[in-house]
């Protein structure tokens, strides 16, 4: 099948590679323009662009570039922009969405599923509509969440999504048939800086936020990033951080958590014990917020 592919992050790469390996003709790859990153502000290509160039595929940045190719279908995976109705009229598109729609329509479905404490999530292959993630479903695949980090879960979903998309393309029945979304609609809003702030929360929410990556709190008015944490049975009061039985433990609203790996502001990642040992008055309790 002749297709145009639209995607940007690493999570979209397995589907792009899968299309090529399955011998579909990817006539064009549309991705987001190179961005300046790092201290040197060097221009960095998106993971999808890097993969496309490696595969010898043509790359564009504008939806209007689709007018220049003869394709039967579009495939969209985490492109990062709404596809207008005018484009969808010219080229019908399938979308690989990382949730069990209609739950978690929107920009951050994997993160929101973890934060909400969902037991499972999955992948939905839908026909794309101009409205946000409302299209009919061709197939869904379910995945247990467990204690997976957002990186682990996203990688798993991206691989399952690639297989599910190829299954739909290989089946005239799955491609032709779809069902209207049913169930409670929830929206996966973009994450803000405050989403990652660990303050006045339950122990479960604390641990789920850490699993997103980028979680942080403040101790003595200094920012401390929390890289890894586990539940603790230590009797530590809410808002207190101290060392208990060889662990650095924080008291939350309904229990305690032991932080295992941290990154102090302006420093490198280290064990929580190494961070604690490097502070003055290590026997003294401190407060966190």
Individual helix count: 8
- Helix amount: 10-25%
Biggest β-sheet: count, sense, barrel? Answer: 7 strands, mixed
Q: Which stretches of 5+ consecutive residues score pLDDT under 50?
A: none
Backbone shape? elongated
By CATH, the topology of the largest domain is Rossmann fold
User: What distance separates the N and C termini?
Assistant: 55 Å
Mean of residue pLDDT? 94
Q: Biggest sheet: strands side by side, in what order?
A: 5-2-1-6-7-9-10
Provide the CATH superfamily of the largest domain. Answer: Formyl transferase, N-terminal domain
Class computed from helices, strands and strand pairing: alpha/beta
Can you tell me the CATH class of the largest domain? Alpha Beta
**Backbone CA Rg:** 22 Å
The total number of structural domains is: 2
- The assembly state of the depicted protein chains is single chain
CATH architecture of the largest domain: 3-Layer(aba) Sandwich
Element order, helices and strands? EHEEEHEEHEEHEEHHEHEEEEEEHE
Write the topology of this structure:
Elements: E1 2-7, H1 13-21, E2 25-30, E3 35-37, E4 42-44, H2 47-54, E5 59-60, E6 73-77, H3 85-90, E7 93-97, E8 105-106, H4 109-115, E9 120-127, E10 137-144, H5 150-170, H6 172-176, E11 187-188, H7 203-210, E12 216-219, E13 222-232, E14 240-244, E15 247-251, E16 256-264, E17 270-271, H8 272-277, E18 286-287
């Amino acid at each position: 099948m002749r297709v145009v592919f639209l995607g940007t992050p690493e999570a979209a790469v397995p589907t792009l590679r899968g299309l090529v390996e399955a011998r579909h003709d990817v006539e064009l790859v549309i991705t987001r323009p190179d961005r300046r990153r790092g201290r040197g502000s060097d221009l960095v290509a998106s993971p999808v662009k890097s993969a496309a160039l490696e595969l010898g595929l043509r790359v564009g940045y504008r939806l209007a570039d689709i007018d220049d190719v003869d394709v039967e279908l579009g495939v969209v995976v985490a492109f990062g922009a709404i596809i207008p109705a005018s484009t969808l009229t010219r080229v019908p598109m399938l979308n690989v969405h990382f949730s069990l729609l209609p739950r978690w329509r929107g920009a951050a479905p994997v993160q929101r599923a973890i934060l909400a404490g969902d037991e499972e999530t999955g992948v939905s292959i839908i026909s794309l509509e101009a409205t946000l993630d409302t299209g009919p479903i061709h197939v869904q695949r379910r995945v247990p969440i467990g204690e997976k980090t957002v990186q682990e879960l996203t990688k798993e979903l991206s691989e399952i999504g690639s297989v599910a998309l190829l299954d739909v393309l290989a089946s005239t029945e799955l491609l032709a048939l779809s069902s209207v979304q049913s169930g409670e609609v929830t929206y996966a809003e973009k994450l803000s800086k405050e989403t990652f702030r660990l303050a006045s929360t339950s122990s479960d929410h604390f641990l789920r936020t850490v699993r997103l990556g980028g979680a942080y709190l403040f101790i003595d008015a200094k920012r401390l990033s929390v890289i890894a944490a586990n539940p603790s049975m230590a009797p530590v009061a809410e808002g207190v951080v101290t060392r208990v039985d060889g662990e650095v433990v924080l008291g939350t609203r309904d229990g305690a958590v032991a932080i295992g790996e941290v990154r102090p502001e302006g420093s490198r990642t280290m064990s929580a014990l190494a961070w604690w040992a490097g502070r003055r008055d290590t026997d003294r309790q401190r407060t966190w917020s």
